[in-house]
Amino acid sequence: MTDPIPSPVRADIERRLAAIAAHEGIRYLLAVESGSRAWGFPSPDSDYDIRFVYVRPRDWYLDLSIGRGVIETPIEDDIDLNGWDIRKLLGLMLKSNAVASEWLASPIRYLADHPMVARIAALADAIFDPRGMAHHYARLGHGALDRRLETPEPLPVKHYFYGLRPALAIRAMRIDPARRPPMDLQGLMLCSELSPAIWAMIQELVEAKAQTRELGNARRYPELDTLIRDELGRADQLPQRKPGPDARMRANQIFLDLVNS
Predict the structure, then answer these.
(1) Cβ 83 vs Cβ 70: under 8 Å
(2) CATH fold for the domain made of 7-114
(3) Using the 8-state DSSP alphabet, how is residue 63 labeled?
(4) Cβ–Cβ < 8 Å for 154, 220
(5) Do residues 176 and 242 make contact, with C-beta atoms less than 8 angstroms apart?
(6) Dist CA 255 CA 72 (whole Å)
(7) Domain limits, the chain
(8) Which of 34, 50, 60, 134 has the fewest CB atoms lying closer than 10 Å?
(9) Among the residues of 128-195, which ranges form H helices?
(10) What is the DSSP secondary-structure string of 29-46?
(11) 193: Cβ–Cβ under 8 A, 6 or more apart, which residues?
């Protein structure tokens, strides 16, 4: 399979990750692409949105003052590189945070996953709340489209996708509420039971975005407008699931196993 990240860019990203690790004294658990390249609809001028999860030495967590749970770096050469401490990731997972779920599911990895990532993903599968996640995606879709679906005006291609991906995430969870939705558009399409006509429209948009700068406009697709509007309005139909009594204990054990290793 062809690497979607050009070799020189990947090498630069790996170099920057190594420099951050040396400067901060951290170990990486994962480093992934989190933007439109991982979502499956990049533009020629899309940034590289790298997100990572890390763990610090044990003594850092024993300090009375709680340090920042993030590492942020300035965007340079279209490379946006930021990360979360494992404690932050696990805390958000216990709230069924969709962003944490997406990082775990990203199809583009910049480093080999730490073996503990499999346990973290299994916990995410066990505790995720379909309704809470659906509400996240509904807010995301409505925020991206605002009132654009109610007008016949041309729609920027990226806005179509910023509404379509959340809509398909909700649809995928309606079809199978026991499974966290895929992060990427192609994975969502495969589990969303779409008609051949809708499938073809989405593929047409993907091809258009691959050739169009971020703000390029697309022709309107009334059928997609209807699908997006309908699915974004169905978040309340998803079942609600609260974490079991052992969820926090399992998260704590993952944390302790990592900082003590």
Answers:
(1) yes
(2) Beta Polymerase; domain 2 (3.30.460)
(3) S
(4) yes
(5) no
(6) 22
(7) 7-114, 130-237
(8) 60
(9) 130-145, 157-175, 185-190
(10) EEEEE-SHHHHT---TT-
(11) 171, 175
